[in-house]
Amino acid sequence: MMSTNLRVTLAMLFAATTVAAPAVSAPIEPLQPMAFLAGHCWKGDFADGKRSDEHCFTWLYDGKALRDTHTVRTPGKADYVGETTYYWDSAARRVEYVYIENLGGVSRGSMQSTPDALVFPATQYVADGQAMTYRVRWTRLSDTSYEAWSEMQTKDGWTTMFKLTMRRSS
After folding, report:
1. Per-residue pLDDT for 13 more than 60?
2. Are 24 and 34 in contact (CB under 8 A)?
3. Could you give the CA distance from residue 141 to residue 116 in angstroms, rounded to a whole number?
4. β-bridge pairing 65-73 and 106-114
5. Which of 18, 39, 87, 139 is the most exposed place for a label (fewest CB within 10 A)?
6. Per-residue pLDDT reduced to its tens digit, 114-143
7. Under CATH, what is the fold of the domain 26-168?
8. Can you give the residue ranges of every domain in the chain?
9. What is the pLDDT confidence band of residue 24, given thresholds at 50, 70 and 90?
10. SS3 46
11. Torsion of CA 161, 165, 169, 170, to 10 degrees
12. How many C-beta atoms surround the C-beta of residue 10 within 10 A?
């Protein structure tokens, strides 16, 4: 039988996950370049016209971290889902992230803000004992769109995995 304390704790956890995230007056300074993403979902279609990619961003802990819930949808297949948390690593003095997805893959890396883009330097995605080196660049096109360009490293150099225009969908 479940103890009263455990029931109260579970009820509080459930309530905390179902309440809308409070508005953040301003994120911490290192995360401010990502502020245009927060509170919105952004959707892009792959070149094949069959798959779509959607990222929904929410501030965590009063602007100290940013959550990106990511879903790739392909008709007739189960969704590919992942979650990234961006945060300020005060010891390394940079924005870092951890990514975990539903197939068991993980990635850790950093983000650098440049005048025209958010740059995610080369890092590794690891799944099933295999590692792939990749890098990403998000270039803001307008208040309602950005370009997401992802490349992977091969024995011959860097090659584009995909380049999508992400449009604000909510």
Report:
1. no
2. no
3. 9
4. unpaired
5. 18
6. 999 999 999 999 999 999 999 999 999 999
7. Lipocalin (2.40.128)
8. 26-168
9. low
10. coil
11. 90
12. 11
User: Which of helix, strand or coil describes residue 31?
Assistant: helix
Cα distance between residue 158 and residue 165, in whole Å: 20
Both tokens of residue 13?
């956890």
Whether the CA torsion 8, 9, 12, 18 is positive or negative: it is negative
Query: Tokens in use for 127?
Result: 């799944």
Query: Is the distance from CB of 44 to CB of 52 less than 8 angstroms?
Result: yes
Write down the pLDDT at residue 43.
97
Burial of 27 (0-12, 13-18, 19+ CB in 10 A): buried
User: Among all chains, which residue has been given the structure tokens 């039988």?
Assistant: 1
* Residue 69 CB contacts under 8 Å (≥ 6 apart), including other chains: 55, 56, 58, 81, 82, 83
Tell me the mean pLDDT in the region 4-29.
49
Beta-bridge partners for 160: 151
pTM confidence score: 0.84
Residue type, 45: D
Are 73 and 81 in contact by the 8 Å Cβ rule? The answer is no
Residue 75: CB partners within 8 Å, gap ≥ 6? 50
pLDDT of 26 = 86
- Are the C-beta atoms of 139 and 146 separated by less than 8 Å? yes
- CA-CA distance, 138 to 115, in Å (whole number)? 12
